[in-house]
Amino acid sequence: MLYSKMLVLNFKSSSHFARQLLKENTYPYCGDKKNYDFIGTITDNGFKIKIALSGPREVFRTVAEGNFRDTNDGNAEIVAKLRLSHETLIFILLFNFVILLLTICFAIFDMTKIFVPIIIFLVANAAFVLAAHSNFNTTIQLIEKTLKI
Predict the structure, then answer these.
(1) What is the rounded CA–CA span in Å between residue 139 and residue 91?
(2) Helix/strand/coil (H, E, C) string of 101-136?
(3) 8-57: per-residue pLDDT in tens?
(4) Which pLDDT score is estimated for 27?
(5) What is the mean pLDDT of the chain?
(6) pTM to 2 decimals?
(7) Angle between helices 115-146 and 86-109 (to 10 degrees)
(8) Whole-angstrom Cα distance, residue 48 to residue 5?
(9) Contact (Cβ atoms closer than 8 angstroms) between residue 77 and residue 18
């Protein structure tokens, strides 16, 4: 799928320590600390966090859902699926719906310019895919920084 990505990280310590490091940078677990990287929930078995870079009005939000697993050698493995948040997917859907309506209007009133909304549709969706993958990479870098990998 264009709007999701799997992530597997090997951590050189226990899953409990990895969970604690992630909690220190996740609101509401980090307390009154104003500089946090993630918003979400972390349980004993897993986590569901959103990246918190540009505040609540950021259009592209990545959600990371995953779990911590201890391996046989005493290390931990973090397995997560990165995907776009529901708000982001709704934004993309509404944008495409508006472009579809614009295409219908051009088809009804001015057939000579019907290619304009089609080009907007293609360029915008290519930009959405690039922005999603860029946001996935930012999320991966923040998780690696948080876990000191």
Answers:
(1) 20
(2) HHHHHHHHHCHHHCHHHHHHHHHHHHHHHHHHHHHH
(3) 888 788 888 888 888 888 877 666 666 777 888 888 878 888 876 655 55
(4) 78
(5) 82
(6) 0.76
(7) 170
(8) 15
(9) no
Burial-class residue 48 by CB neighbours within 10 Å (0-12, 13-18, 19+): middle
pLDDT for 94:
93
Alpha-carbon torsion 108, 113, 116, 121, what sign? Answer: positive
Per the listing, tokens 């290390």 go with: 75
CA 10/CA 14 separation, integer angstroms: 10
